[in-house]
Design brief:
alpha/beta, 8-stranded parallel beta barrel, two-stranded antiparallel sheet, about 45% helix
Amino acid sequence: MSEIYSSIACNLDTHILQAALPLFEQEKVEAIEWSFDTLYRFDEVPAWFTDLVSEFSSHNRLVGHGVYFSLFSGKWSTGQQEWLDKLKKLSGEYNFDHITEHFGFMTGEDFHKGAPIGIPLTSRTLALGNDRLRRIQDACQCPVGLENLAFSYSIDEVRKHGTFLDQLVESVNGFIILDLHNLYCQVHNFNIDFADILRLYPLNKVREIHISGGSWEDTMTPPHMPVRRDTHDESVPEAVFEYLGKVIPQCPNLKFVVLEQMGTALATPASQAAFQSDFLRMDRIVKSLARKSLPIPAHLFAPLAGRANPVPLEDPDLHKQQMQLSHILETAANVSEAKAMLRSSDLHNSAWEVENWAPYMLETAMAIAQKWKNGFV
């Protein structure tokens, strides 16, 4: 068996499970990634799905991927505490190899309705992220990691993101999910070379890789370029497979490679066949590059001793700015109006550096936030 496990993102979704069933039957799927918090809204989970998760859990092949924690919210919420309480309970029921979350904070007041948005990369937000990661680690008592962003407002953000992630996970002896389609988005949206962006990340801390597809969103703002979005609703682009082949040899502590796709994009036999084809191609790449060396030491990303501070860290100024930004993104009629609202807000001349945001990315952020507010993704 390879030391790098070919995996799928497998949730309680009929279309995902239909697409993956032939792969399970052929015993091709070596691990599953479960977005456990997407079930927090369900009162009852079918026994067959619990059996599936339990089977991979019993073989140390289950990883958990959070969606809704909102890591960088400036104000601690009851929703975050409930999220941690449920994670602690699940961690007693299942053997998670590791737990990960998304970078950023969720817009909107509804805990389960919002767009994940980036934050200013400062010492204050670093401290906030450290506090939240430690609380996740306390709850799950296993290695903890973060995924790199697909969306940025400026090329400066892109260039700083890898170093900031490195500093964040270092605080909990954690690791990074390197999402290659997210890098594909950055390459296209900011005209940066893949090799150049890859050098910005600590590849020795990559324990998991994601591959997926996405979509293009037209923009009305000059230069009227299409923006690449990480929507998980199409097959994996050729370039992302090429990235995978280049990256695996540079990640000495890699353990899981995961194929992601939304169930809503897997409703037809053709789309399900394409998903299976993408998985088998991913698996061939993984197998061709799998290491023959000794296993990764178990202590490499092990949880730290001790506990988080009993009182969650908060940043009232950041919270106020986040609420203002959420309101602007969700209500502005166009980019010009959004810019005027930003100039009148606390984000003006701040660490957010809104003056340097690419207008076409601001337009895209508005489109994302307004779709989420109305119940779409």
